[in-house]
Model the fold of this input.
Amino acid sequence: MSQPPRPAGTGTGGEAAPLLQSSQSEDTASTLGPASSSASLRSLSPRRPDSSRRSRATAAAAAARNLSFASAVVSALCAGSVAVFSLYGHIFQERLHYTQFQVNGVAIAASIACYIPVPFLGYLCDRVGPAPLSLLSAVFFGGGYGLAAGLYKRAATSLQTVQQHPGRWAYVAMIFAFVCIGVGTSSMYLSAVATCAKNFGRGKHRGLALAVPIAAYGLSGMWVSQVGSRVFYEKTLPDGGTRGDVDVFRFFLFLAILLVVVGVLGAFGLRIVDESDLIEDAVEELERSGILDSSALLTPGRTERGYGAIDQIERRNPFEDAEGDEGEERARKTWVLNAETQRFLTDHTMWCFALGFLFMIGPGEAFINNLGTVIKTLYPPELRHVGRPTSAATHVSIVGITSTVVRLLTGSLTDLLAPSPQAQHIQLTSSTASLQRQQQKRFTLSRVTFLLFFAFLLSLGLAVLASGAIQDHGDRFWIVSGLIGSGYGAVFSLTPIIITVIWGVENFATNWGIVAMFPALGATMWGLIYSAVYQSGANRSAGSDNQQDNLCYGSQCYASTFWAMAASVWVACALVLWAWKGKNGWVQRGIVV
Done:
């Protein structure tokens, strides 16, 4: 149907059109025939302005993603300071006269605080964005490390000449300080990883995009431990120049200032680019699968594109009372995220997978938290001055390096070798045919295979330590720290990648927060078991000095604990294998992983 003629020299919107555009349109119309509508005129007019605008928008979006990625990596590089607890845990025992149970109590409080709040923090991150979470981390880090520094300074001074245990309230306050540090850790880490997952999770290099901030988080323990041992150290040895233990007070103040600055910078640098497009794509996927029966309510008018046969049915938009388009968009986003959360929680394979993650990461967390005291058990008093004992800082660095390398390696290899689903959202329908076509075209290796292999390496490191092969040979301890660091890093890298592949990226922070909560139970359980075994060995140790210092030497301090930890990892492998290939598991449902 033709439209009424417009005055010459006007564009489609009634504004004056350039003469060049008008003449070009008339020439083209005279060549191809008379223009029948304004739509045909628009289709024949030059599109350079629109193309230029789109290219500028694309370039701006790419720049924003890159800036957010850089900010996320910086945040992750600083977020893992809690991993260096072994650097000063034994100093709490020696200077503040904490028992092994009290030292582990502080470490466990930090570990629990790293994991228990993560579901809430993930829910917050998905709905308001990563920037507020980064700012929150600055508050918790500054308060936590500042309080810990003051408490340590006061306690170390008052107990310097008095052999007594710390006061009850001083110890409770130290636990509270490390709870704040743990919450700050999870806030900063989650804001960084969620930013990368949502900005790059729909691309073919999603594994590497997630592995980089996760690897940076593992690397943070290495560089922070080196700074602590090489910059903030005490000159307490006889020559006056040799480095002694870390100066805990100055080290805590440094971390407080650094992490406040990084958290504030992250509040400005971390952002999700084109999040509305991500939600719209998720809506389409859920509509297509039939999960959202009221698709017309979520996206009115979308049925004309073929997503439902309800064109003639009048439906009320439940968001019509929302404050403008932004209010409706927020309501739609909340509805979609809640639907995906419900789907995640009702998937039985998720619970098997989460329990497997618990039984894998719990032993790794307990080993890292107690690495310093484990090393001390390798050197009985009679061997203390034979050679130069290995240090906790060295093996914290080994764990950090191996963890970092393996996280990057697994992220890259899974991008190259693992099969990829056709959709980048939650996998609801069978993708078996798609997977078979991929396998026919190229060699593929499931991400679960990578996970099980590196979990075995983790258990191997625990078993080597439990066997007693390292006792009185601290120079061999790198074997244990290397194997455990590799396995621990791979499990922490592959687990969130698998979550994005199976359950999508738009609700990633909430989903990952739910799964990441489980290791807190494992770290607590194994920390308490290690403390009980260690204290029992200390009580059996001969000599009044050992009794007074609450120190234990020999394999009886740890062997039974680490054998049980190795068995825990083997149970975890069985649970993950069941979720993958068991009854109604991922393979049977045709889920590509």
Remarks:
- The chain has 23 helices and no strands.
